[in-house]
Each structure stands twice: as C-alpha cells, then as structure tokens.
Sequence to fold (724 residues):
Amino acid sequence: MELHKRHVHSLSERKGQKRKLDDQLHANRQISPPPPTADERAAILCQASDQVRVLDSTFTWNEADRAAAKRATHTLADLAKNEEVANVIVEGGAIRALVRHLQAPPIGDDDRVQKPLPFEHEVEKGSAFALGLLAVKPEHQQLIVDSGALIHLVDLLKRHKNGLTSRAINSLIRRAADAITNLAHENSSIKTRVRMEGGIPPLVHLLEFADPKVQRAAASALRTLAFKNDENKNQASDFCLKLGIYIRLYMIVECNALPNLILMLRSEDAAIHYEAVGVIGNLVHSSPNIKKEVLLAGALQPVIGLLSSCCSESQREAALLLGQFAATDSDCKVHIVQRGAVQPLIEMLQSPDVQLQEMSAFALGRLAQDTHNQAGLAHNGGLVPLLNLLDSKNGSLQHNAAFALYGLADNEDNVSDFIRVGGVQRLQEGEFIVQATKDCVAKTLKRLEEKIRGRVLKHLLYLMRVSEKGLQRRIALALAHLCSAGDQRGIFIEHHGLELLIGLLGSSGSKQQLDGAVALCKLANKASTLSPVDAAPLSPTPQVYLGEKFVNNATLSDVTFLVEGKRFYAHRICLLASSDAFRAMFDGGYREKDAKDIEIPNIRWEIFELMMRFIYTGSTEITLDIAQDLLRAADQYLLEGLKRLCEYTIAKDISLENVSSMYELSEAFSAISLRHSCILFILEQFDKLSARPGHSLLIQRIIPEIRNYFIKVLMKTNSRNIRL
Fold:
C-alpha cells in the first residue's frame, strides 16, 4: 500500500484562490482598514443609495445618462474594494442595480441614439467589475447569482462575436470572466449554474483570444470551475452533485480546451502559463480519466519545461502536476525522468520557498516509487536535499521528503549512499511531526536493514576498510543498527568495526561519544536475547545438598564456626563440596584443618547464616540491603553461584548516582556479571550520565573492559562467513 497521502486541503487555498480584479487591489488590502464607525457606515450607506438611484434612472442610451451610470459603477467599485463596507453597499441595493447594467439598454423605435453609441461597453464593464469585487465575500455570491447576473456575464463573454474587437471590448470580457471566477470560488452550486447558463464554451473559446489578459482571465475562470472543492467531500453520497461535477469537468475537455491550454503552457508570459497549468492541474486532480487525456494531448513535456520557469508559482503547479501524472502508472514515472524532470526538481528542493520544496518533494516521492528511477534520483544528488528537509518544521513537507526517501531505500545501489551521507542517523534522530511520517521513517529503516547483506554488505565492509576515518565510523555506526546478529562477528571482530565504535566512545566530541554509546548498546542487545541485567542467574555447579534441616544443626556436626561469639554448627563434607576455599581450609596445610572451632572474625552472623544456607540448599533469599555484604563473603569463600545471585540483585539497583561505585564494587570482588551490567547501563544512559561530574574519567577507565565485554559477546554469536 502506498504510504503517501495527498494533503489536498493544504493546496486548496492556493488552487482555488480568488482572482484579484485590480492590479493594485492586493497591495491595498495588505493592511485591512478598520471597520467603519456608525457615522461612517451611515454616510457610506447614503452614498451607495445615491449611486443606486443614479443607476436606476439612467438605464438609457442618452449620453448624459451613460456618463452618469459609468461614474456610479466606478464609485460603487471603489467602495467595494474595502471588504469592511461591502455589506453596506449591498444593503443599499447595489446588486440589483449593477446586475441590470450588465446588459445594454434597449433601443426603442423612437429613440434617437448617436453613433457610435455613447460609452458603449463601459457601463457594463464597470458593473461587472463592481459585482466581482462584491463577490469576494462568500455571503454575496448567491445574492448576485439569484439576481440574474450569470446569464448577463456569460453574454458579455461573447461580445467579440460580432467580429469587432477593441480595447474596451477586451477589458469588458476580462471583467466578466473575473466576476465569474469570484462568484464560483468554492461554491459548487454556482459552478453548476455557470455550466447550465452556457458559460464554459465561451470561456474555452477565449483561450484563443489575441489579448493575453483575456486569455489569462478566461483560464482563471476555468481553473476555478475545474477545482473540486472540499465541500464536495461532505456531499459525496449526492449522486446528482457528483454527476454535475464530472459533467462540468468533461465539458471543459469536450470543448477542446486542452490543445489551447497546452499551447499556453509554452507561453513566455508567466501569468498565462501559471493559469494554464492551474487549469490542467485541477482537471487532472478531479478525474483520473481526464489525466490520461491530458497526457495523450501532449502536456508532459511543456509541464516539465515549467520546472525551469522564472515564475515560482508555475514551478509549484508544474511539480504538483508531475506528481499527479506519476501516480498514473509505472511507464509515466519513467517517462517523466527520461524527459529531464529530475534535475530541476532536485534544485527546487533547495529553494528557500517552502511551497516549492513541498511540491518538488511530492513529485520526487511519486517518482521514487518506481524501481527504474530510484538509483538515478540518488545519483543526481537527490538524497542529501531530501534528508535536509527532514529537519523542516512543516509537517507536510517533512512527510513528502520522508516518502521520497522511503522509495529510494528500496534500491540496493542507494544503500551505501544513504550510509555515506549519514542518512541512517538522520532518520533515527529526526523529530517528526505527524505519526504518518514516523511510520514512513520506520519502514525506510526497515528497508535499509533488509538490504544489509550480500554485495551491499561487502561493499560497505570494503569502504569501512579503505575510506577516511569519518566515513569508516559512519559505516560502523549504521551497521551496528542495521546488520543481522549473524553478521556481527564478521563485521565487528573480523573486520574491526568494534574498534571504530570504541574509538568514537573515546573521542573528545560529546556527539561522537553518544553515537558510539548508542551503537554499542544496539549491538549488545542484538548479540544476546537478554541483557545480563535481565538474565536469570546461572545455576550453581551441580552437587548434593544436605538440605535446610541441617543448617546450623548439631546433629552429625563435625566442625563449628564462631561468628560474633556464637557457635554455628556445620558439616565438613558439605563444605568440602561447596568451594575451593573450604577444600583448601580442610584439606590443605592450614591450621583450620584439624580445628574443632573456627573463628570467623569479619562476617556478621546474618550474612554467614545466609551463606551457609546457600551451601546446604543451593539457594537463598537475597535482599538489597545485605547483597553487597553477602557478595563480599561469597567472593572470600569462592562461592561463584552465590556471587552470581548477589550480582543479579545488586544490578537491579544500578542508578545514575551509584553506577561508578557499583563498577568499583564489581572490580573489588571480580564480579564479572555486575561489571557487564554496569557497562550496559552506562551505554544505555550515556546521554544523561554525560552531564554528571567525573563522567569522562569513568568512560576512559572502563573502555578496556568494554572492549573485552564485546569481544566475549560477539565471539559467542553464530557468524556467517563474509569475504570481500
């Protein structure tokens, strides 16, 4: 199952964005004016009402009336540029009056109208402009449509049909297309109304218009109509609504929009190719079948060409569209790469524009899921920029980069490159924002782990032998995390990877030390199923025990110990079988050999009794408060089984505060298991320990024992033969 999921919502604001109706409007709205006061509102309402009255009384071809109507539409448009007062304008009745003036006044038989007609097209243009500005507010869209604006706006798109073109006609058509764009913005019902009123064919026809501004306006309207906005998702069960959407989309295609849109992709005018790629992108996103038609129409190469556009918006749209194309089939992924998309996409990864990075990572992520592309994407330099994007604070960008890396990790030829540039550590140490990205990264590491075998492993071992020290260490670190337990001995003993990790641990850099500690800890966990801290203690040497009832029992006793002035009855046969220390005591040349009473000067009664109980039964209950004293006694009398039980109990109490003293204790009494437990604890808690005083001295002190521990552990593992 594909891991990547498109975040359409994050794109919808840009892809369905309202078209600005005035070149200065966007700049003017950067700082929103404050809402009008009550007095100002009353004044604006009065002014708007005055203009409405002018419009109501000047719907004629009289030159003075036309001039007054033109001024009135301009005044209302100027007021509408301030969204804070748009509601006041609507309250004054502006919509009805403006809609009326979208059409030319009728000419009666008795009317005397001069030629040329006064202010022909100018009043209609002003009305369309003002209505388009009012439509910026969603609550006004339906009011305007219900007032009958659409049929007149669609008629205005056809004003050039009489064969005449002029600057005024071109401007009028552009304002009409702009108004349709804003009316239909994120409003499915109005988009359907535009289709039903016949608005799509004239918009498609205008893509061939000579005036580039008209082309752009028509494309912008088609782009909005082609966008399947989020509200459709909540109404997916409405068959009629879904049918209406697809009819609208296919009508754009059936009206032969694609050839002209593809020609516009090659335009040197950035504004034109931006709108064209936006229309195609929305069509492709809305319907898989249309995606195939777009490809068959020849869109692929000009879209790839837009990756090198000077317009960053067109670059973003082109990258997004290529990502959508790449989801079609494997052949399309390969064709995109063959036609030169990879290098500009990789360059876009390094852009300061976050949206540009996100869209290029999205496209590369789709391309990287094809086995034929994976090695080429890494070879062309895609690996490092994608890894760098994992540090982004943008969750969508981070996920797109992670998904692309997941694809690249599927190719054996890329594994060495991942490790060479530190990719494994970047994946392990990254702070990922969303769970989907965390899951994707985990699966990427799993993929890399599965590739560490055969020729990949041999190549890495070769690099670990001949490369400079920094790369050697990176390889050893990665292999500690990724290699199988069966390869550990070959990698870290026979090919000296262990010395590289220990070298990191002994270095002066805190980050290198931590990396070495984490890798060694991982290595130890893989080498044995259970760590010494958690392992059950080994059983003592098999022997015959007299049993609990003979502990300190005078029956058949042939030796007595004096402990803290009290007698403790024992049996030589049991003691001789328990340890070399007692055998030397009773069979050697010591004075205790024939003594009836033997004084024990340095052990408390409680400790001695527990020790004897272990000798007689093979077990004893050891609590933490007496474990160290019992360890001392067990070491003195060479009771290895009891020592292991004591070490096991003591090891459970190792902490940041006492690990140093615990290690000293293990050295004092040759407590190997406790020493190994201390080593593993130090490696596991290295980051926390590094902030404590004396940490560096402790590490330097135990490095020889760490080496001995890992040699012992790794030599026990079953090893596969790895030959270079």
About this structure: Residues 695-716 form the longest helix (22 residues). The chain has a mean pLDDT of 88.
